[in-house]
Design goal:
Elements: H1 3-12, H2 15-39, H3 48-81, H4 84-92, H5 97-125, H6 127-137, H7 150-174, H8 180-185, H9 198-217, H10 222-255, H11 257-260, H12 265-314, E1 319-322, H13 330-342, E2 346-361, E3 364-371, H14 373-383, E4 395-398, E5 414-416, E6 422-424, E7 443-446, H15 448-451, E8 459-470, H16 473-486, E9 490-493, H17 494-533, H18 535-546, H19 552-589, H20 594-627
Parallel strand pairs: 3-7
Antiparallel strand pairs: 1-8, 1-9, 2-3, 2-8, 4-7, 5-6
Helix pairs in contact: 1-5, 2-3, 2-5, 2-7, 2-17, 3-7, 3-17, 5-7, 9-10, 9-19, 10-12, 10-19, 12-17, 12-19, 12-20, 13-16, 16-17, 17-20, 18-20, 19-20
């Protein structure tokens, strides 16, 4: 048997040891190939929108490729740690350090080659399904037909073979075999129980508390200024949480005799205490990576919801036509309604004249909308809102629209009539809502009696609204786009605008979602490696303890608790981090993101639960077989 055959057989005879590393690498290759499949797709060429999609996919592929290097490197180092005894046995048999490095190089290249080939093959198998999903997510007018992505295939194969070659060279260069006795004993060498520093434990609480407090307290543009300090505070606090605070809590729990001596808690706490030093770094890495995934996807979902919902709330009337330069002609109105009839759209219609008056604000004359209850009620009735009434000399203000990103400017407390008389504004709330009239800024509503006494307006705009009673969504979009192209006026078709926004956000959401999934799956793989590194040790430990009376049921309970802590401690921390980050985002925009945040965070939590159930089943099965 040649040395190459030895390395080949070594991989195939230790499938359990290599399977997580292989599958994680395969998944990374498949995702990267999928991105290139999109980026090089013939359908993503031509217009500006499709070109931007292709560029976004290429950038995302680059991010995944860079992240893949560090992820595979970590996976490789974790898997080498579990082979210390094997290296010791090989040295006893006469293998030199140089031969061990060469063996590791050949094994890694072999795994890399098959992971790349099978990753590309799986990408091809699921290509059409993924393309169909992309068509809907990207809101594309054309179809992304299946094609043979030769360019994507070649680029993926060459890129990942170079990546595995670099990692193999790097690992063999830094690989250092320890003393023979250390390798042979492997994990049997005792570990000192980690101790927590009181100062660092308190510091962890202070850093996390202050980071959370700042993130939740700041509002508006101050959120951007606070971003970097909060990230530093929470990152350092998270590291100390797992390396110091968790150790401190475990020691306190162990000192509680009633809890420590209850059933199998002694096994659980003793094992956690001795493993915490190793697990802490993995916990920290998983928590930070998961937080990035949660925050990124939550931010994208939140921004999309904020923008699309804001447009709908600010424009409750399906179609509005506003004259700003020239009067609206009867021919244009007929054209609009003919297009509605062509698309079988039925509607209610109303028109108003909006008068803007010069009101002094310091040294400037700013045109401000001043209108009457009858004008307000014409559109309020159209959209089913409450109509209002005013007394003869009553003046009220209505706040700015929800789409106005500028800080709200408070209107003057008085308005000036034509004869110079000042009329005070009544702050009484009579139920007038900002987005009934198509006006972004704040405005006044005055009684008919006062309106007749105002000076000549600076200018007037005519606004006509059509509220849809019946019509399919695709017809509303098509009609809106057609009318917008035909008319010179300021025309607003809400469904068409939201459709265009979804087309713009589709590529961003798709890229962000894929990158977030890659990060999250990678975090789960870190936990998998961390868990399976201790599998042989757990087999020996539970085999020994079962001989003194530990039942299979009790063993399953201990293992389940250990895996639960391993899988959910960093994820729960990441969910809390993500919730705070999304709360800060909602404060920046003044928009409630509770529903979007809950959707994103709960989705990832459910995925983690499913991953936990699968891993727990196979892990306990292997330990149980060893004990029997």
């Amino acid at each position: 048997m040649t040395f190459r055959q030895f390395a080949f057989n070594n991989v195939f005879r230790n499938k359990r040891l290599y399977v997580a590393y292989f599958l994680s690498s395969l998944f990374t290759v498949m995702v990267f190939f999928t991105f290139l499949n999109f980026a090089f797709h013939p359908g993503l060429t031509g217009d500006d929108m499709n070109v931007s999609v292709a560029k976004g996919m290429s950038v995302a592929g680059g991010i995944i490729y860079v992240f893949s290097f560090f992820f595979i490197l970590y996976s490789m180092s974790s898997f080498l740690q579990s082979r210390k005894r094997e290296f010791g046995v090989l040295i006893i048999q006469g293998m030199s350090n140089r031969q061990i490095r060469w063996m590791v190089f050949l094994e890694n290249m072999l795994i890399g080659f098959f992971a790349t080939v099978f990753g590309i093959a799986l990408g091809l198998v699921f290509a059409k399904g993924i393309l169909l999903v992309a068509e809907n997510v990207l809101v594309m007018e054309g179809s992304l037909h299946f094609y043979m992505p030769i360019k994507a295939l070649v680029v993926t194969f060459i890129s990942f073979m170079i990546l595995f070659l670099c990692i193999s060279i790097f690992v063999t260069f830094v690989l250092r075999t320890k003393k023979l006795v250390t390798l042979i004993k492997g994990d049997k060498i005792g570990k000192s129980e980690p101790k927590a520093s009181i100062i660092l434990t308190v510091l962890a609480v202070l850093l996390l508390g202050s980071g959370y407090a700042i993130a939740v307290y700041v509002k508006g543009v101050a959120v951007v200024a606070a971003l970097l300090p909060v990230v530093i505070l929470v990152t350092v606090g998270t590291y100390l949480l797992f390396t110091q605070l968790s150790v401190f809590i475990i020691r306190k729990l162990k000192n509680n005799e009633n809890l420590f001596w209850k059933k199998t808690n002694m096994l659980l706490f003793s094992d956690l205490s001795y493993r915490m030093k190793d697990n802490a770094r993995a916990f920290f890495m998983v928590a930070i990576i998961s937080t990035v995934a949660f925050s990124a996807i939550g931010t994208l979902v939140g921004l999309k919801s904020y923008l699309t919902t804001g447009v709908k709330e600010a424009n409750p009337i399906a179609f509005t036509l506003k004259s700003e330069v020239e009067d609206i002609s009867n021919e244009d109105i007929t054209l609009i309604e003919d297009i509605f009839a062509e698309h079988q759209i039925t509607y209610d219609k109303s028109g108003v004249d909006l008068a803007y008056f010069s009101q002094k604000e310091g040294d400037h004359d700013l045109p401000t909308l001043i209108t009457t209850p009858s004008t307000y009620n014409a559109f309020a009735k159209l959209i089913g809102e409450k109509e209002i009434t005013l007394e003869n000399k009553q003046v009220i203000t209505v706040g700015q629209s929800s789409v106005n990103m500028m800080p709200e400017k408070e209107l003057k407390r008085t308005i000036v009539l034509e004869d110079g008389t000042n009329i005070k504004v009544d702050n009484k709330d009579i139920g007038a809502k900002p987005d009934v009239l198509p006006e972004v800024g704040a405005y006044y509503i005055v009684s008919e009696h006062i309106f007749q006494q105002l000076p000549e307006p600076a200018y007037e705009n005519t606004v006509i609204g059509w509220q849809v009673k019946n019509g399919k969504k695709e017809d509303l979009i098509a009609a809106g786009e057609k009318i917008s192209n035909e008319l010179p006026y300021q025309f607003m078709a809400v469904d068409s605008v939201v459709y265009d926004m979804n087309k713009m956000w589709g590529p961003i959401m798709f890229v962000g979602l894929f990158i977030g999934i890659v990060f999250f799956v990678s975090a789960g793989s870190f936990l998998y490696f961390r868990l399976y590194t201790d599998l042989d040790e757990d087999k020996m430990k539970f085999t020994a303890i079962s001989k003194i009376g530990l039942t299979i049921s009790e063993m399953n309970g201990v293992i389940s608790k250990q895996i639960t802590i391993l899988f959910f401690a960093p994820i729960i921390v990441a969910i809390i981090h993500g919730a705070v980050a999304l709360t800060a985002l909602s404060h920046m925009f003044g928009y409630n993101l509770v529903r979007e945040s809950a959707l994103v965070l709960s989705s990832f939590f459910v995925i983690q639960v499913a991953y936990f159930i699968i891993v727990r089943y196979f892990y306990t099965k292997q330990v149980r077989l060893a004990v029997k």
